[in-house]
Specification:
There is one protein chain. The chain is of the alpha+beta class. Helix content is 32%, strand content 23%. Strands 3-2-1-6-5-4 form a six-stranded antiparallel β-sheet. Helix 2 packs antiparallel against helix 5. The protein starts with 9 loop residues before the first helix and ends in a 6-residue tail after the last helix.
């Protein structure tokens, strides 16, 4: 397993994440609706809104699993936040970065991952809208565009959390 690199702007990224005042907050329907739509649209068993903290990936929304957080060092999302474009792993079992990751070799036996970064207007990638499947998959250009549009909706909700629903 290859641990994700730490972003060059990690201190700024973590400060921006903390300014959102969202970590460890209760579930919110507006985030759950987007994640549920993504799971349905892409026909995947798991979709999440993840926020990458110092040592953990915390899930603001988690469709298909009953997890609130996971260690950052085994996180697919940790790899995704170091790039601006969607990050796709068609078959984790065949990818050197993930082949021996416990999430691949043990329950839940992840094979596919796609994550679109939650990039704030100030430039920091604080998390992802991500999809997981238990079988290998590909994503075409249209699917990546749809995922990116849904990601934009999540960012909009992050920035407008205090607004009335």
């Amino acid at each position: 397993m290859i641990t994700a690199p730490i972003p060059a702007n990690e201190d700024d990224r973590l400060s921006a994440l903390r300014r959102l005042l969202i970590l460890d907050t209760p579930p919110e329907e507006r985030f759950d609706r987007i994640a549920a739509f993504a799971a349905d649209e892409f026909d995947v068993p798991i979709a999440m809104v993840s926020l990458v903290d110092t040592d953990r990936t915390w899930f603001k929304s988690h469709i298909g699993v009953d997890l609130q957080e996971a260690p950052r060092d085994v996180s697919f999302c940790g790899h995704a936040i170091v790039r601006d474009e969607p990050f796709v792993v068609p078959d984790a079992a065949q990818d050197a970065r993930f082949a021996d990751n416990p999430n691949v070799t043990q329950e839940p036996h992840i094979r596919f991952y796609a994550g679109a970064c939650l990039k704030l207007p100030s430039g920091q990638n604080v998390g992802t809208l991500c999809l997981y499947d238990f079988k290998p998959r590909e994503m075409d250009r249209v699917s990546l565009a749809i995922l990116s549009t849904l990601r934009d909706l999540v960012v909009e909700q992050l920035l407008n959390r205090a607004a009335p629903p």
